[in-house]
Design brief:
Layout (H helix, E strand, L loop, with lengths): L1 E5 L6 H9 L15 E7 L2 H10 L3 E3 L1 E7 L14 H7 L3 E8 L3 H7 L4 H32 L5 H18 L11 H8 L9 E7 L8 H9 L3 E5 L1 H7 L4 H11 L5 H13 L1 E6 L4 E8 L4 H8 L1 H5 L1 E8 H7 L2 H6 L4 E3 L9 E7 L2
The structure holds guanosine-5'-diphosphate and magnesium ion.
The site of magnesium ion has 5 residues, from helix 1.
């Protein structure tokens, strides 16, 4: 899963990136960043740790999230859809938008006083504008192909859908709230519209104000956003301490878990993802799929051969194996299930695919 850290310049993206990844990229107030920072965060799911203790495999593989820290909202070239930054950003599955809600006299002088709601609106406007340009360009090209006599039902459907898309966008509405059937969703997927990406809001505040963000957060969630407060600079400093030291400071602030754990959990929630596991002597491993995906899709995640030659999924739950300690007892108790292609995989399922190619 690739999550983009986006937001206005100096909102604290790199500070939060450093906290998440334990890196030390420059957060200089005056020198603008010009490249993308990339960091991979391993998701230390305690269930994988437990399964690994039980199966004692040669390899234990956790899932991971890739965070990409971009230098500012687009550098004025929003209309340049071909720019490599925009293309890179399109490849991210979800956006974490950093909103500055801390006071800093020097920054106030450079980028203006803090105003997280205004920044959010500006971000949404830019996303919507960028999508509108893409959608209108495509409509123009469809018009051209009509003139050349190419007019298939698929293109006509696409045209109809894009006209609806443009209506919403012209009203300033982000596409993520648009209701789509499966086929339309598939048609739009190829465009990778910005305003359709799941959006998580990170309200970056000072340590002193960390516990005074409720009003803003409830305003944001009232508007349908998933939002949390992060004391960015404080978290960056925490990431340099060892775990025990950090724990003391976190308790002081009323922070329940590390920034990694909080963002991991929210990223899964944002994307509607869940984890299933495969186990064995060789490898215990976590896999990520979308809530509602079936056993066939899960098989395909592991390997395309498993989906192609799918016979059945042998399946039990993480809780059951931890409670009973081995698969033999699960079989005796009827907790070892055989499921077909259409079985909807649940979070924490341990799955083994029988297949034949
Ligand atoms: N007071 C305070 N300053 C912060 C916080 N987060 C970031 N900053 C400062 O804001 C400036 C810009 O931060 P940076 O992470 O580089 O922003 P970016 O441009 O969005 O990547 C730096 O000087 C940071 O030290 C915070 O939570 N509190
Ligand atoms: Mg930065």
């Amino acid at each position: 899963m690739k999550i983009a850290l986006t937001g206005l310049p100096k909102s604290g993206k790199t500070t939060i990136f450093n906290a998440l990844t334990g890196s030390e990229h420059s957060t200089d107030k005056y020198i603008p960043a010009d490249s993308i920072n990339i960091g991979v965060v391993q998701i230390t799911d305690p269930r994988i740790t437990q399964l690994s203790q039980l199966y004692k495999p040669k390899k234990t593989i956790y899932a991971h999230i890739e965070y990409r820290d971009y230098p500012g909202i687009f550098s004025q070239d929003i209309e340049n859809a071909e720019s490599s930054m925009i293309q890179d950003l399109k490849g991210c599955e979800g956006f974490a938008l950093v909103l500055r809600n801390f006071v800093d006299d020097e920054l106030d002088a450079i980028v203006g006083e803090r105003n997280p709601l205004k920044d959010l609106m500006r971000f949404e406007e830019e996303m919507v504008l960028s999508d509108l340009i893409v959608a209108e360009n495509r409509l123009e090209r469809i018009e051209l192909s009509y003139k050349r006599g190419v007019k298939t039902p698929a293109i006509q459907n696409e045209e109809k859908l894009l006209k609806l898309v443009c209506e919403d966008l012209r009203e300033g509405l982000p596409l993520r709230n648009m209701e789509l059937n499966a086929e339309d969703a598939k048609t739009l997927r190829g465009f990778q519209f910005f305003s359709q990406k799941p959006l998580l809001l990170l309200v970056n505040c000072s340590e002193d104000e960390y516990n005074q963000q409720e009003e803003l957060l409830s305003q944001l969630s009232g508007r349908g956003y998933l939002a949390i407060a992060i004391a960015g600079r404080f978290e960056e400093e925490l990431s340099k301490l060892d775990d025990e030291e950090a724990q003391v400071f976190m308790e002081d602030m009323g922070i329940a878990s590390s920034i990694r754990d909080r963002l991991t959990q929210l990223s899964y929630q944002l994307m509607g993802y869940l984890s299933f596991f495969t186990v064995g002597d060789d490898e215990v491993r976590a896999w990520t799929i979308t809530r509602g995906d079936n056993a066939l899709t899960a098989a395909g995640k592991i390997h395309s051969d498993l989906a192609r030659g799918f016979i059945r999924a042998e399946c039990f739950s993480y809780d059951d194996i931890i409670q009973h300690g081995n698969e033999k007892i699960l079989r005796e108790k009827g907790l070892f299930r055989l499921e077909g292609k259409e079985y909807v995989v649940k979070d924490g399922d341990v799955i083994s695919i029988r297949f034949n190619v």
